[in-house]
Design a protein that fits this description.
The structure is a homodimer of 145-residue chains. By secondary structure, the first copy, chain A, is of the alpha+beta class. The first copy, chain A, is built from three helices and seven strands; from the N terminus they run E-E-E-H-E-E-H-H-E-E. In chain A, strand 2 and strand 3 form a beta hairpin. The longest helix of chain A is centred in the middle third of the chain and has 23 residues. Chains A and B meet through strand 1, strand 2, strand 3, helix 1 and strand 4 of A and strand 1, strand 2, strand 3, helix 1 and strand 4 of B.
Chain lengths: 145, 145
């Protein structure tokens, strides 16, 4: 797997993946409120975790023949206060809207992603917690993580 | 630090960072050759490493008062063949063009990034190797990594 990340100007970089051809901008600059060309690198790292587990969930729910209308993941991360300011804990909040999604099915999908399939989560050192919401009702994982 | 990653359609997600406001698309679909909305999640993770160390290098070279005209990083990663297919080794190839950049200065900047400042590199489990090129001449790190 290959990507390149090229400096444009200021603290802005354009990144391109050789495999997919997909591109993003990463921007390390910008004062609060100032417009940016893209997210900061550590934000991008969290996004990769969300995309990874999100794609897993789509695939698993599809195999379970469960339909949904909306699906998003909110990710919050704690970081060490000293350099290199690594992630120390990441919490994923899966939120979904659909008519026939039982909490057991959703939790099984999340566990399959986090424990077996999600390359991004498992490539990180930090522990990852999760909870989930179905049609506005919040659930905590059963039986520990 | 907070981001959200929202499913759009097919295997496509739009990710937004609360802090910077920066947005990217992540696309898990697409057959080879088919157009994609954005890179795949694991490509995005590598991009975050490139952006992180790239911003470090910009800052350090600026403090050293070293000028350059072009700067990019090529990143290659090996992954495990079994699920969850984590990164097993990442190699960064720093490439720069500038008139007064000594190999020792460039190597010092890279080491400061990789060993002290780069949050993304240090948040990953996989070992990270590097080499660098200045005005077309390739250097291997001296004295081991």
């Amino acid at each position: 797997m290959r990507v390149d990340v090229r400096w444009k100007e200021k603290m802005q970089f354009k990144a391109r993946a050789e495999g997919s051809g997909g591109e993003i901008f990463i921007d390390g600059g910008g004062e609060p409120g100032e417009e940016v060309l893209g997210p900061r690198p550590m934000e991008v790292m969290l996004m990769s975790v969300g995309g990874c587990t999100g794609i897993d969930i789509l695939s698993i729910l599809r195999k379970m023949r469960l339909e949904f209308s909306e699906f998003w993941i909110e990710i919050e991360a704690q970081r060490a206060s000293d350099h290199p300011k690594v992630f120390t804990e990441i919490t994923l909040f899966y939120r979904i809207k659909g008519d026939n999604i039982a909490p057991e099915a959703m939790e099984r999908a999340i566990r399959l992603s986090q424990e077996k399939y999600c390359s991004a989560s498992q490539s990180l050192k930090a522990p990852i917690r999760f909870r989930y919401e179905i049609n506005g009702v919040v659930y905590e994982p059963q039986g520990g993580r």
